[in-house]
Amino acid sequence: MARSSAFIVSLRRIQALLIKEIAVLWNDRKTRILITVPPMIQLVIFAFTATMDIRNVHLAVYNKDHGNHGQELAQRLDGAPIFTRLIFTRNEANLRETMDSGKALCAVVIPQDFSRALHAGTTARVQIILDGRRSNTAQIVSGYLSEIIQTYYSNLSIAKHTSHAAVLKTAVPLVRHWYNVNLIYLWFTLPCLVGIITTMITMVVTALSVAREKEMGTFEQLLVSPLTPAEILTAKALPAFIIGMFEGSVLLAAAVFLFGAPMAGSLALLYASMFVFILSITGVGLFISSLSRTQQQAILGTFIFLAPAILLSGFATPVDNMPDWLQTATLANPIRHFLTIIRGVMLKDIGIADISANLAAMLLISVCTLTIGVWLFKRGLK
Amino acid sequence: MTAKSSPVFVRLAAVSKRFINNGATTTALNAVSITVRPGIVTGLVGPDGAGKTTLLRLIAGLLRPDSGDVAVLGWDMAANPVPAQADLGYMPQRFGLYEDLTVLENMNLYARLHGIPDTEKQDIFDRLLRFTDLERFQKRMAGNLSGGMKQKLGLACTLLRKPRILLLDEPGVGVDPVSRRELWRMVNELVNEHTAVIWSTAYLDEAERCDEVFLLNSGALLFTGKPADLSRRMRGRTFLLKGVPGDRRTVLSEALKQPAILDATMQGSAIRLVLRANETMPLFLQTGQLADCPDAAQMQAPKQAIRGTPDAGIGTDHAENLTHAALSSLPDAAAHASCAEKVRLVSVAPRFEDAFLDILGGAPHGESSLSRFFAPVAGGEHAYSVEARQLSKKYGSFYAAKDITFSVRRGEVFGLLGPNGAGKTTTFKMLCGLSKPSRGQARVSGLDLAAASSKARGRIGYMAQKFSLYGGISVLRNLHFFAQAYGLYGKKREEAVAHMLELFELAPFAAQAAETLPLGYRQRLSLACALMHSPDVLFLDEPTSGVDPVARREFWMHINALVQKGVTVLVTTHFMDEAEFCDRIAFIFHGQVAALGTPDELKNTVAGPDLPEPTMEDAFVALIKNADMQEETRHCAQTR
Amino acid sequence: MDMKINPRRLGALIRKEFYQMRRDISSILIAFVLPLILLFLFGYGLSLDVRNLRIGVVLEDRGEAGMDLMQSFAASRDFSVTLAHARQELEPLLARGAIRGFVVIPQNFSELLAQPASSGGPLPLIQIITDGSEANLAQFVDNYSQALISQWNQKRAAASASNAPGIQSEIRTWYNPDLESRFFLIPGSLAIIMSLIGTILTSLVVAREWERGTMEALMATPVGIVEIAAGKIIPYFVLGIASMFLCTAISMIVFALPLRGSLLMLLVISSFFLFAALGQGLFISTISKNQFLASQLAILTAFMPAVMLSGAIYDISNMPAPIRALTALIPAKYMVSSLKTLFLVGDVHSVIWPDMIVLAGFALFFFVLTALKTKKRLE
C-alpha cells in the first residue's frame, strides 16, 4: 500500500515535470519554430534533391563522319527524350572545352569511317566519353546511349539483312523493379528523410533541454526539490520522445498524403519500430546532454554524432558499397536499422520476421544508450 | 572638490530612451538631464532596471537617444561617437574581459586598441599592475581570476589610455567588501581635474562615497546633488533602538505596523528606525515594552514627544539625552523603569538609503501576509535544524571547504558571510544537498540531504541567487509545477497556488511569462515557489542583490514572518544590512569558519579605540585581515 | 561609417583571436577534428562504387548457354551471387534485403538463343528483378547486370565464327578513368568543410562576443566597425585556408586524389568561397547575437545546403527545376563545381572564373548586408 502510494506520488511529480517541459518548449518561440518549420522545408526540398532520376542531360556530339550514318545517328540521339540539349562540336579542342567546362555530361564521338564501315558491313566504332566528375549519372546515361546506338544498328541491320541467316540471337535483358515499379526516387528518399529529420529534432530537443536548464540555473532548483534523478531523467526524456514520435508522424503523413509515397505495410509495425528507434535516439541525446555543460557544447556534441550517423545510414550512398569494416560499424547506427525498416514496411510490406534482426539491434542500442545515458546523467548530478 | 566652474564633460539634455521587446515598450530613461564634471566621482545610483546601464551606454555612444541630446567632451554622440570614444574608458558590467586570454594578453589587446605606443606601454603596464596588485597574476587566464581581481583587471584595461571620462557599470556587483574598498581607493586616486568618473551602483551605501549622485528609479531622475544633501533631509528622523528586550523580531514587525514609521530594520540586536516627516515616535518603541503596551495609541503621549523634524537639529549625544528625558517623563515611568533602563533610543546619522526610501514612500507597511498562511513549524525531535559537522570539500589537493562545523537552531536566521571564492557557496551547496561533501556531514532536520530521500528534500525551500524559475512559461504554470514537484496536487495544489497568488499579489500577472515580470515581482515569485510546501528550512543564496530597497524590505518582512513561525533560514549574502538581519553569522574564509557569532559579537571583536562603533563591513574587512595575518604567521611558523 | 583601418589595432584584434582559437576546444573541434571526420566519412563511408553487389541468379534453364551466363555472373567481381533453381527461393531474400535483386535465366533460354535471328519467334529474355525500395542499389543492379549481359552477348558473338558486324561502343571516362566515386565526393566534402569553418564557427565566435559582453567593451574603444569585422574575418580566413590545405594534403596522400589544376587556383577559389562563407557567418551572428540561434541558423542555411544542394553528393542537374533554381543561391554550389574541376580536370578557366565571380558577388552581398545591419551601436 505504502509502495503504491509512493509510486503515485512519483507519477504525479513526473506529470508536473512533463507539463512544465512541454510548456517550456512550446512557449519558446524559437524552439517552436525550430521544431516545426525547418523539418517540413527540409522534407520538401531534400526529397527532390537526393535523386538519381536522370534529368537535364546535355550531350556533346562530335561527328567526324561525312556519310549519312553519322548524321542519322546524331539525329537519333537528338530525338531521344533523355537529352535536353545536344551540343555539336566541330573539332577536338572544341570537344575538350565542352567536356572540361562541364557543359555536357557526356559526348559521343562518331569516327570518320563510321558510315564507311557500316556500308562495308564491318564493325563500326563509336566512342562514348563520360565526365568523371559526375561519373555516377554519366554511367547511367552511358547505358541509355549504348542502347540507342544498338537500336539504331538493329533497325538498320533488320532493314538491311532481314534474310541474313548467320546473325545470332542475343540475350535480351528485361528489368523489373519490384516494390517501386517505376523506380521513383522519391519513394526511396521520403522514408529515409522521415527517419533522418525525426532523428535530428529528437536529438536537438533532448540534448538541449538539460543544457539549457544547467545554463539557466533552474537545474539546481530541480535538484533540491523532492524530484529524484530518475524522475528528472524520465521527464527530460519523455518530451523529446513525444516530440520525436509526433514529428515522425507528421512527416510520415506528409510523405504519404502530400507526396503520394506508398504505405504498403503495417502501420502498427512501423510505429512499434519508430518507438524503439526514438528510444535509442533519446538515449544518445541524454548521453550528450549529460556530458555538456552549455548549450554550445550540446550543439557540437549533437553535430558530431549526427554527421557520421546520417552519412553512414544508407541514405546518401548504400551501406552495401562501404568497406566491410565500416559496414560492420554501421550495425551500431540506429538510423541505419530504422531506415531499412521504414523502407521495408512502406514499400515492401515486410513482416516482423524480416525486420526482427534490425529491431533487435535497435532494441540493444536503446538499452545501451539509455543505460549509459542514465548512468552519466546520475553521475553528473554528483 | 566640487568645482562648478570646471568644464562640463558630459551633458545630457532631456534624454529619453525606449526599448521595444516582444511588442511591449519599456521606457528605460525618461527625459533625463544631467551634467558631469571632472574632479569628482559621480554616482549613478538606483536599483536594477532603473536605467543606469542605458545611461552609461548613451554616454559611451553605444546607444542613440530617442530624443534629447548627449554631448561628451563637446561631441554630439548621436552624430559621431568615435572622436569622444578615444577619451572614454568604459567598463561594462562583466568587465569586458576575454576570459580565455591571460591578464597580460587582455592588457596588450586593449593597449593596442587604444593606440598606446609600445614604447610607453611597459611603463603604463608596470604602473597599472602595481596599482591593481595584479603583478603576480600576469600569466593567469582572466577567467580564472576571482571576482575582485577580474574587476581590477577590467579597471586596468579601461585606465590604459588615461581616459578623461571613466564609466564604470556596477563595478561592485558580486564583489566582496574588501575588494570594493580597494576599488574605491583606486578610483579616488584617479580622480583629478582632468578626469571625470561615473560610477553606477545598486548598492545605496556606495552612493554615500560619491561626491555627487544621480538617483534613478524606473527611468526617472529622482535626485541630483551631494549624497549628504539628500541624507540631510532625514536628519533627526533616524534612531537606533538598543537593548530591545524579548523577541526583537516581534518588535520589528510591530514597528512596521506603525504609520509613523517610515522604515525599520534589524541591526544586530538593535533595531534601526526611521520616522516619517513630522510624525511622532510611537511610545512603545521608546520603551521597547511591547508586551505591556501593545497598542501605542492607548498610551498617553509623552510630554516631550520625539518628532521626526529635520529642524530639530539635534546631534547624536543631544538626542540620547533627549530620549532619556522623554523616557523618564513617561506617566508611569516607574512601572517601566526596569526595562527602560536597558532600552535606549539613540539618534543616529541618516543614510542615503533612508532618503531614497523616503522618496519611494517608505518600507512596505503592515505585516507579512505569510503569517496568516503559514502554520507554525512543529517542534521536532531534533534540537538543531541544520548541522554541519566537519564538512569538507576537496578538489584535487585543494580544499574548497575544510572542517566546517556549526549548528543552526530552529527558527534561527543563520548567515554565511565571506569573500568570493572563500568557500561560502561550496558550503551552502553541501548543506542543501547540491554537492556531495568529500568528508563530514551536512544534516538538515536530522537528515543527510546528499544521501537523503526525496522526502527529506521536500522539507526544504531553496531560492537561488539568479532568478531560476522557468522564464518562458507563465507565473501560474511555474507555481503549479513547483507545487506538484513538492507533492501538492489536486485541491491542495490549487489552494496553495491561490494563496501564493493572493499573498504575493501575483494574481494580475498569473498568465504572464515569468521572465517579463518586473524584478521585484520575480523575486516574489521565486519566494512563493520556495514556500508553497511550507518548508521547515529555507535556503537563500544572495536573495536580494540588485533589488530596490522597498522590495528588499518587503522580502525581509516575509522572512521575518516565517522565522516567527519557526522556520529556519540559511542565507548567504554580500549585503551588510542583510547580514545584520541574521541571528548568527559564520564568517567563512579560506574554506574555514574564521569567526562565528551574532552580528554584535562579530562587530565587537573588531571594536577598538580607533573604531568604537564598527559597522558590519568594518568587521568583515577586519576579519579578513586577521585571518590573513594568522595564515601568514602559521605559514612563517611552518617554514621556520 | 568609419572606414579607417589602423594596422596596430587590427593586429591586436587578430592576435587576440588566435590566442582564443588556441584555447577554445570548440574552435579546434570545428576547424580540425570535424573536418577530418567528414573527410574520412566521404573518403571511406560514402561510395557510389559498386562492390560485391548481392544478387541472386535463378537458373531455370538446363542448357549450356544458360549455364555459361550464370557463370559469368558468378565470376564477376561486381556481384556476389546466391544461386537458386526457383525464384521462390529468392523472393524472401529480396524482401528481407539479403539480396538486392536477382536475375532469372528462364527455362527455354538456351533453346531460344540457339535459334537463328531470322527465324523470328520469341526473344531469349533474361529477367532482372531489383529491389525498388533501395533505389540506388536497384539502379546499380539494373546497370551492372545489363552491362554484363551485353558483354556476354559480345563475347558470344566474337566467339562464333560468323563475326557479325555491328556498332561497338567504346566507353571512356575522362578525368576519372577508374570511376572512383570518392574522387568526386572528396572535393565536394572540402566545400562542406569550409562552410563549416566559414559560417558555423564564425557565427559562433561572433555571437559569443555578444553573449559575454566583450563586444560592448570593444565598441566603447576607438576601434571601428570595419576593424572589428576584419579582425574576425582575417583569423578565420587563415584558419579556413589552413584546414583546407590540411584536408587537401590528406586527400592526396591517403585517398590518392589527383590535383590536376594549380595550387594557386585552388588557393584563389578557396579564398573567394571563404569570403562568401565568412560573410554569411558574420551576417548570421549580427542578426542572432546568441550562440544557440546562430548555430541553428548556420546549420540550416549553410551546412545542410552545402551537403544536400551543392552538388557535392547529388547531381544538381538531376533535380527538378525549382530546386535547381534554389541551388543557385547556395555559395557552396559554385565552390563544389570549381573544386571538382580543379582536382580532376585542371585549371579550366571557363568553369572557375564564372564561379569565382559569383562567389565574389556573394561575399560582397553579405558584407554589405552586414555593414548595413551593424552599426557601432548596441541596438
What does this protein structure show overall?
With 382 residues, chain A is an alpha/beta fold. Chain A has 2 domains: 37-50 and 183-380, no CATH class; 57-153, 3-Layer(aba) Sandwich (abc type-2 transporter like fold), CATH 3.40.1710.10. Chain A is built from 14 helices and 5 strands. Chain A has a 4-stranded mixed β-sheet with strand order 2-1-3-4, with helices on both faces. In chain A, helix 7 runs antiparallel to helix 9 (229-258) and helix 9 packs across helix 10. Chain B is α/β, with parallel strands linked by helices. Chain B folds into 3 domains: 10-229, P-loop containing nucleotide triphosphate hydrolases (Rossmann fold, 3-Layer(aba) Sandwich), CATH 3.40.50; 233-360, no CATH class; 369-459 and 538-598, P-loop containing nucleotide triphosphate hydrolases (Rossmann fold), CATH 3.40.50. Chain B is 36% helix and 23% strand. In chain B, the strands form 5 sheets. A 6-stranded mixed β-sheet of chain B has the order 6-7-8-3-9-10, sandwiched between helices. A 6-stranded mixed β-sheet of chain B has the order 20-21-22-17-23-24, sandwiched between helices. Chain B is globular. The two termini of chain B are 50 Å apart. Chain C has 2 domains: 7-46 and 180-373, no CATH class; 53-159, abc type-2 transporter like fold (3-Layer(aba) Sandwich). Chain C is an alpha/beta fold. Chain C is built from 14 helices and 5 strands. Chain C starts with 6 loop residues before the first helix and ends in a 6-residue tail after the last helix. Chain C has a 4-stranded mixed β-sheet, sandwiched between helices. The mean pLDDT of chain C is 88. Chains in contact: A-B, A-C, B-C. Chain A binds chain B through residues 9, 12-13, 15-17, 19-20, 23-24, 27-28, 216-218, 220-228, 382, and chain B through 432-434, 436, 454-455, 457-458, 460, 462, 464, 466, 468-474, 477, 480-487, 489, 513, 539.
